[in-house]
Amino acid sequence: MLRRCIFISSASVYQKPLASFLVTESTPLANPFWPYSRDKIACEDFLTAKYRESGFPITIVRPSHTYDERSVPLGVHGKMGSWQVVKRMREGKPVIIHGDGTSLWTITHNSDFAAAFTGLMGNIHATGEAVQITSDESLTWNQVYRIIADSLRVPLNAVHISSDFLIRSAAGLYDFTGSLIGDKANSVVFDNTKLKRLVPGFSAKVRFDQGIQETLAYILAHKECQTDDPEFDAWCEKVIAAQVS
Length: 245
What we know:
Layout: E1 5-8, E2 22-23, H1 35-54, E3 58-63, E4 65-67, H2 83-90, E5 95-98, E6 104-109, H3 110-120, E7 130-133, E8 138-140, H4 141-152, E9 158-161, H5 163-169, H6 177-184, E10 189-190, H7 193-198, H8 208-221, H9 230-244
Parallel strand pairs: 1-3, 2-10, 3-7, 4-6, 5-9
Antiparallel strand pairs: 6-8
Helix pairs in contact: 4-8
């Protein structure tokens, strides 16, 4: 007998643009900019209908930007992941930050996500509920990139470029519409009151400046995590040159 189904959705399902910077589980679900998010909403709608019609034991989890020892959280990167941006930083090359870098973002270490997730497993009070799992720490993208550079012990050479310009410049190569306009270009602060009520004692413990040091140490020690992306590197050079000319 199925005792519980936990569906991992995404915090990107919340309405864009947001009516309020503070996001709760009651924030409307609507993202016209990203098919990924609309697919998640469709899954939520289907499972919620099954719960209402037949008592299907569903719990919906909505994580935001979660990272581990192999991935550096970034606003803009290529198809091969985050390494090329890290490499550019280490080589003193300029890196792209979308917009003016002042929008707020929430990044969660995977160990904190796991602690909250396991607290929901088998929890009868979570049946039929949607619960977001994020850190309570909010950072601007400028702070995110500064912390990464500081952890690498290199100066941050940032070039700020509007999301609209990045989307136009990436046409036919990268689709940044969903990941930027539908997600990272928006300021988000998450209210985790519901999670803490369902999982008493839970609190995210890993600050970003702590977690990213562990991530970078792991990546720099493991060659398999250092996949070069010359296509993205060349695109960065082209876009930065167009912006600063």
